[in-house]
Write a structure and sequence with these properties.
By secondary structure, the protein is α/β, with parallel strands linked by helices. Helices cover 47% and strands 13% of the residues. The chain is built from 9 helices and 8 strands. It has an 8-stranded mixed sheet with strand order 3-2-1-4-5-6-7-8, with helices on both faces. Helix 1 packs parallel to helix 2, helix 3 packs parallel to helix 4 and helix 4 packs parallel to helix 6. The protein is globular, with a radius of gyration of 17 Å.
């Protein structure tokens, strides 16, 4: 059965590769990028390479949550249902690490944006017969500082990235418990894959970007919801497994969600 699939951050890297692989199988694909010209070029490229005309896209800078909300509103108007949402958009290094609202850009793009976006389109996702959400985490996971979420402190690029990736993982587990009809999985797509983000951050890579794209494809289209719901897939090991211990601490998860709602309500 053909699926309607939305992948954020899909004009480059593993998001783009996964989109192409899905498009070649005839699925309806919606891309997302922050640059309209680049997005249109990628849409045209994927149509040509896949022979699939059912590819479209949306523009939003995920460091600006007002744009995230606007994109969500556009999607709810344009798309009848979404079978699979892949929250893939992410950032590690930036020339402007603090957003105009005063928050670390890793926290905003890697965690707040998917939180806002997913909740805004959740009703559209739930119109699918087999809805699922794949949230991109990382092997880099670090205990979350509520002060960082508030924008009260600054930390290193690596630390901010690791905290943002644990945050989206903890929220994934929370969302899975809250939404019984939606299968939610957190994914480490693999360490140091050959993507522009990794090369900019580390100057080297360990594995092909296809490794990450392939697991996104597999988790998006696996038939049995129970195989993925509320779990963490570690692609460095090639299997479902344990995440950072904080993700299983219900008190810490609840504090994260409470702080997240407080920040988002007060600022956006």
């Amino acid at each position: 059965m053909k699926k309607t699939i939305l992948i954020t951050g899909s004009t480059d890297g593993i998001g783009k590769l996964a989109a192409l692989k899905m498009a070649k199988k005839g699925h309806e694909i919606y891309l997302h990028g922050r640059n309209a010209d680049k997005l249109q070029k990628v849409i045209t490229e994927l149509k040509q390479k896949s022979g699939n005309e059912n590819i479209d896209g949306f523009v939003a800078d995920f460091s600006d949550l007002s744009q995230v909300q606007k994109m969500a509103e556009e999607i709810n108007t344009k798309i009848s249902h979404i079978d699979v949402l892949v929250n893939n958009a992410g950032v590690f290094k930036s020339s402007q690490p603090i957003t105009k609202e005063g928050y670390d850009i890793r926290i905003v793009v890697n965690y707040y944006a998917p939180f806002v976006f997913t909740n805004a389109i959740l009703d559209t996702i739930k119109k699918s017969l087999e809805p699922r959400i794949i949230n991109l985490s990382s092997a880099a996971q670090s205990t979350i500082s509520l002060d960082l979420l508030d924008g009260n402190i600054t930390v290193s690029d690596q630390e901010a990235y690791a905290q943002s990736k644990l945050a989206i993982l903890m929220w994934s587990f929370y969302l899975s418990r809250q939404e019984s009809v939606v299968a939610v999985v957190a994914l480490n797509p693999g360490s140091l894959l050959n993507t522009n983000m990794v090369k900019a951050a580390y100057g080297r890579f360990w594995s092909s970007a296809d490794k990450g794209a392939d697991i996104i494809y597999d988790l998006a289209l696996i038939k049995n919801h129970a195989e993925i719901d509320g779990k963490y897939f570690d692609n460095d090991k090639g299997e479902f497994g344990p995440a950072y211990s904080d993700a299983y601490n219900v008190d810490l998860v609840n504090k994260l969600i409470e702080k997240t709602k407080q920040v988002l309500k007060g600022s956006f």
